[in-house]
Amino acid sequence: MKNNVLILGSESPRRETILLDLGLKIKKYQHHINEHKLIKKSNSFEEVAKSIAIAKNEYIYTNLDNNDKNYFLLTADTLVWNSNFFFSKPNNLDEAKTNLNKLKNNFHFVSTAICLRKKEHYEVNFQTTKVVMKNYSDRYLNEYMKHNDVLSKAGSYGIQDKEFNLVKSYVGCYNNVVGLPVCKLIKLLNKMNLKIYNNILCDKHT
Predict the structure, then answer these.
(1) How far apart are CA 53 and CA 61, in angstroms?
(2) pLDDT for 149-169, tens place per residue?
């Protein structure tokens, strides 16, 4: 049925898995915008994440064919940040290691903004989670980087990684750190009357 088809403007396999668990049929599209140009120092990181999610959404919607414009369109943006700066996806392993050393033995925040569109109307929401990292050794960090994909994630780590996990604790929504705050998403889906078949609960909260 067309009413539960959703276009996902993201290449993230983690976001795709969450949406499939909700019983949605997915079509994936990429965006080609420079996210760094949208970051303004005068804005909070939550506002930056929202502006990037909206920009991705508008770009993809403009480039869809007329048939696909009838579907719902979801875009998201995740920022990892602390009081000093934000940690983007690394360009190489050296940058990833630098990020992870800066995050070590300290806390930071993960903000994910989501933008859900139906034709010309869209809704935006966001979630922020506090994450505390372990005081890991260089050897532990090197093993982590060998066994996990650090180049495709903001902040260079995944809270869901099973081997050599770097996260000590978190306060808030677990799935938000994975890349998609399920509770906020379900509220938008319900508000915009997008039928889902598996109303899964975002039960990993602290």
Answers:
(1) 12
(2) 999 898 999 999 887 899 999
Q: Distance (Å, rounded) from C-alpha 132 to C-alpha 16?
A: 26
Q: Residues with Cβ < 8 Å from 194, sequence gap 6 or more?
A: 3, 4, 6, 24, 72, 116, 118
User: ∠152-115-109 over CA atoms, to 5°?
Assistant: 50
Contact 27, 17 (CB under 8 A): no
Q: What percent of the chain has pLDDT over 70?
A: 89
3-state secondary structure of 27: strand
149: annotated active-site residue? no
Residue reference for tokens 């869809």? 64
What DSSP string runs through 119-176? Answer: TTEEEEEEEEEEEEE----HHHHHHHHHHS--SSSGGG--TT--SS--EEEEESBHHH
- Please check whether residue 125 is in contact with residue 147, taking contact to mean a CB–CB distance below 8 angstroms: no
Catalytic residue among 68, 77, 138, 161: 77
Please tell me the distance from the alpha carbon of residue 56 to that of residue 35, in angstroms, as a whole number: 9
This prediction has a pTM of 0.88
Please, are residues 56 and 77 in contact by the beta-carbon 8 Å criterion?
A: yes
